[in-house]
User: Fold this.
Amino acid sequence: MFNNYFKTAWRNLLRNKTFSAINVLGLGIGIAAFLLIVNYLRFEYSFDDFNTNKDRMYRVPMTVTETDGNPQTFAFTYPAVAPAMKKDFPEVQEVVRFRRRSGIVQHGDQKIIEGGTIYFVDPAVFKVFSFKFEKGSAATAFAQLNDAVITHSTAIKYFGNEDPIGKTLHYNDEDYVVTALLKDVPANSHLQFHILLNYNKYIQLTNGDANTSWGWSDFYTYLLLRPGANAHALQSKMPAFAQRYMGDDMKKNGYTVSFEIQPLKDIHTRSRYDYEMAGSGDLYYLKYLGIAALFILLIALINYINLSTAHSLERSKEVGVRKVIGATKMQLVRQFLAETFLMNAFGIIIGFVLFKLALSQFSLLIGQNVTDLQTATWQFWVVMLIVFVSSTLLAGFYPAFILSSFQPVQSLKSIAGFGTARQSRNFFRKSLVVVQFTAAIILIGGAIGFYRQLQFMSTRDLGVNIKQTLVLQQTANVDSGKIPSVQSFLNDLQSIPGVQAISSSTDVPGSEV
Assistant:
């Protein structure tokens, strides 16, 4: 019986090629756009999910309020916070500090500038974060002060296909020995690095300040709470904690510091703090994208319903003949649902193909690696398939019941006598058209708004002509005694043909002071 339903459905699709093509392509394009957006949202919401203990991991940011009363938010805090919390709060199982550094790293004759991709980290980092080892282990990674852990791509960059274990990297007048190799950090990690160095070495280099200072900031601090520990209860203890260690200094200098306990999963999409390690997502922006994806799918489904019901008049005589020869209403419903299922199956296949074809260009648009957007789990695709099948079949129920409800006498009479029967359906169809056009207007209006805002940002007068301007950054430490050599270097640059003017500055104009 079902085989017959699909045969009949296939014949009807071939007999109405234009109608079928419009329906299938409309549905396919809508599904492709929906998939692109939802897959991007999946990637954004999956940040830091690779960590086994993600539900027990927290960051310690802070808010500093000066005497003028204006609060400043910082994603980092002071280096002494970590050991003090480990000592004072039994619910804290592990603490890890990250201190970001930049500079020239040398191996042999090769010198590479690492811009903010070097971190000094506490040896407990691998007890907290679930970074995967290719070689070496967490137990031996930072056994010595000058040990270094690098990622797979970093090893290729410095050592090619050679085994990096035991090899030396020279950084800031120190030699560091590679003791472990990590797989590249997942793209959906808010922590991105190339080289990890032993934080105990940094304590030594700073004469202990990197462990005891309550005034030197720029240290990102992470906690791993013990199983069953209450983060809200820990948060309630933080005002007393700040007062205990910084109360006298806050009173003397007229400022206040409050420490917060921020869940790891909130860092990428919900963080309100400045000085994040990497660019963070915006929860409201992501919600708008989710609404846009639903609108697109809704428009595609409503388009299918409207086209199917508009086509119903041509199917009325077929329904009349079928009923006259004994077909029941449920048999007709199953027949038209089979036709809907077949058309939707084609739409889903076309949508998936278009999604795959557009993914590379879409990845360029959003600034992500295409392979990162292709790493969705099979559970994601099962959910997407269920969404598409259920939503499109639900959309097919209305046309199926409309078509099967035609009375044989009215169906076989002239079309003129069929007008009254269509009155009740017109209101619903018109309502769907209104919903469809409303959703389309909202999407188009939003797209125009975003486009004009981006145009404004890209054409805004910066107050300086940046065309044909090159910035050279000096990464080595230079004290005032080296100013004559810097001036000599500027003179050499000025003598290069094509160089119109030279200027020097302690920082790049436009960056933060």
The chain has a mean pLDDT of 85. DSSP finds 18 helices and 13 strands in the chain. Residues 505 and 511 are 12 Å apart (CA to CA). The radius of gyration is 32 Å.
